[in-house]
Amino acid sequence: MRILLAEDDDRIRQDVSRALEAAGYVVDSEANGEEAWFLGDTETYAAAILDLGLPGMDGLAVLKRWRAAGRDFPVLVLTARGTWSERVEGIDSGADDYLPKPFRMEEMLARLRAIIRRSGGLANPVVSVGDIELDTRQMRLSVAGVPVSLSPQEYRLVAYLMLNKGRVVPQQELSEHLQSVHFERESNAVEVLVGRVRRKLPANLITTRRGFGYIVEEQETAT
User: Fold this and answer.
1) For the Response regulatory domain, which residue ranges apply (predicted)?
2) C-alpha 14 chain-centroid distance
């Protein structure tokens, strides 16, 4: 899954970016508010982490412009501002959660996982499809209780489809969530990756809808 990180403090931006990448996310990072607004307005993200004190365009202005334009990806706000009135203004402007600085990376990651799950209508950190379980906390996937070894990119593909189970995900959207905006996207990269994943998982997990994309169908959980 691809995350937009907008933070002007170099040290925090680099630390958060490393923590996100270690957690399996693809990260596009920006230090300038106007550049961050443009990326959020033109690219597809699973979520954004947004600092309020950005140069160029304040974080609240960025958030308000995204929401006014119908950009509804979840947003976790980071800020050194700690008053309750500023937190209320951030949430009323469309933020999904609020994390004051300084913070622990573990808490930031937990809050990010939660807002992504909630955006997909899921409350449990373990997502199940039949006897397949995806543990978003530990980035592990198992089939009938047996762990399956996946590369980071394979995990991102399966996780995105399972978090969006029941919905056809277009190939372009999948491609955008698997690679950073700074990488050239090859036209058949998703097809090759899906083929690789199908050799590791039950063949019926990922269904191709020709001309539309890929879907993980809802299935009864094994008892």
Assistant:
1) 2-116
2) 18
